[in-house]
Amino acid sequence: MPKFRTMRMDTPAVATHLLSNPEQWLTPIGSFLRKTSLDELPQLWSILKGDMSFVGPRPALFNQDDLIALRTAHGVHALVPGLTGWAQVNGRDELPIEQKVQFDVEYLVRQSFGFDLYILWLTALKVITKDGVSH
């Protein structure tokens, strides 16, 4: 999943929410890129290639074994990953893994073109207001 680099090269290889002080690892423009979600722009290439969708569960990091296991147990792993998702508009960085998966399961059940448009609309509002960004 391509993204603009927002964390320094020497950052520990763990999910950001597991870092004790994630701000210390940000690059000089990393905070701006994350708060504006501009770090996600390269993922448009993945959407064009068909590896991702505009809406779906966010791709898990290679080391997020807990998230991957829960998604697999609930069948969410069968969905194409998305640039944004139902979990992201309902809490983004603030949600615990279990709650993210519950939102992913709800998306799995409710997915439709209309629901996707609603999620895209909510995503635009969240990005504009920087709501739910913790770092």
The helix/strand class is mainly alpha
Count of the domains: 1
Strand content: under 5%
Which radius of gyration do the C-alpha atoms yield? 14 Å
Stretches where pLDDT falls below 50 for ≥5 residues?
Answer: none
The count of DSSP E runs of length 2 or more, i.e. the number of strands, is 2
Oligomeric category: single chain
What do the pLDDT scores average to?
A: 87
Walk across the major sheet and give the strand order: 1-2
Helix content: 40-55%
Q: What composes the largest sheet?
A: 2 strands, parallel
* End-to-end C-alpha gap: 20 Å
Number of helices: 6
Which H/E pattern describes the elements? HHEHEHHH
Overall geometry comes to globular
Could you outline the blueprint of secondary structure elements for this entry?
Elements: H1 30-35, H2 43-49, E1 53-55, H3 65-73, E2 82-84, H4 86-89, H5 97-110, H6 113-129
Parallel strand pairs: 1-2
Helix pairs in contact: 3-5
